[in-house]
Amino acid sequence: MTGKQIAVVNYGMGNLLSILHALDTIGVSSKITDNPEEITEAPAVVVPGVGEFGHAMQNLKARHIDEALVQVVERGVPYLGICLGLQILFQGSDESPGVTGLGIIPGSIHLLPNARGIFKVPHMGWNTLEIIRDAPLLNGIKNGSYFYFVHSYYVQPDSSEVTVATTNHLIEFTSVISNENVMGCQFHPEKSQVNGLALLANFKKIISA
Questions:
Q1: Taking the model in full, what pTM does it have?
Q2: 83 catalytic, yes or no?
Q3: Residue 188 annotated as catalytic
Q4: Which residue out of 64, 83, 95, 110 is catalytically annotated?
Q5: Which structural domain range is residue 153 located in?
Q6: What CATH number should be reported for the domain holding residue 25?
């Protein structure tokens, strides 16, 4: 990995210090930034996020971070989106009708269903991954491993080829994507203990490569 710090993107909607601490734990030098120039010049970006899709896109556009993230992806720089940072990659969300996402991954976002209160929404807590194809981001992570989720909406890619793992919460939904330099997870690796650190360590190796 280069000597430059990776960018943890601040658009006002992420648990940034937890991400920073997790990256520090695995030996990744990173900095929190909302500066588009710093984001485009970074060797990799991590985009966290918790909250509403429309608000996220409003904040990204107001700070011109949306343009920076598109440039990052087009240049082949590794991108890791976490929770809302995954969802903004898509074209739009039922949560915010009429609001356009980054459109980097064709697909949409929908509300998780609720069956008589048994499967609660938001989906909050530990759940497992069903790994459906190999991807560097999941190297060494066993099928059925637990990760920590907090979300009400799920991504639905137009192409199944970008999905590398799914999770079941009444329905089976995409929980990890990988498409060349663009990666994302619906869960929070920074809250997922050993397995979360293993995923971030894999991202570190991807950056180094």
A1: 0.96
A2: yes
A3: yes
A4: 83
A5: 6-208
A6: 3.40.50.880
